[in-house]
TrEMBL record:
The keyword Cell division does not apply. Its main location: membrane. The keyword Transmembrane applies. InterPro entries: Caa3_assmbl_CtaG-rel. This is Cytochrome c oxidase assembly protein.
Amino acid sequence: MTAHEHASAGLDAWQVAAAIIGALAVALYLGAARRLRRRGDAWSWRRTASFTAGGLSLVAAATLEPPGEPFTAHMAQHLVAGMAAPLLMALGRPLTLALRALRPGAPRRGLLAVAHSPPVSWLVFPPTAAVLDLGGLWLLYRTPLLAAAQERPWLHAAVHVHVVAAGFLLAFSVCQLDPLRRRWSLPWRAATLLAAGAAHAVLAKTLYATPPPGTGFAVPDLRTGAQLMYYGGDLVELGLAAVLAVQWYAVTGRTHARTLRRARLLQEPVTPPFGSR
């Protein structure tokens, strides 16, 4: 039974888990935002809308059968759950919201300790996140792993969990909108995004020409799925690039403003104290 046929027969374990996690994350986020508003604190509705859209996208990708042939449907699922949903949820700044909603105490200190722990810091190091994400995709599509996953439900679930988790790591590590232990510079993150985008595009081109080993996808289905991967990936990567561009503009804008203020201070004449000659 192929993955597509299995999905038609009922939801896999990973789909149920992803749907529950997505719905629970949205519920917790909306509850935390409501708590802030009740306390009189402001929280951007744009962040709320973005996170909610990302969480619901994850639920939809897990529970709804995408249109198209098997490989095209699989790729649509990958793009939504592993790329688009993580970006939208990262833009919502969930860690920032959680830290603001929690009162000072053990839960808040525990959450901050986990977020600033060395393992998490290494996982959100941009090159590490990119290797986990893109390396996993190359392993999935350029080895017999996808064919094996089609025949083994547990492996199929593990593959999808990895794709979603690695997609979240990459989005959060590139955007770095939440308070992390170390904020990597814009050049580091931009270079990582550029390399990850190139690796994703090259992988899509190889799939257009050669199917994953051991699979029997029809050529039109394979090429449509590869094109979806190529152009859909570009759209999400442009979204990540836009986040970096806004951050760069903010940093250079502040630097420029400080430079102008210093220049004005140097140009202003010094007024002698009152009564001095």
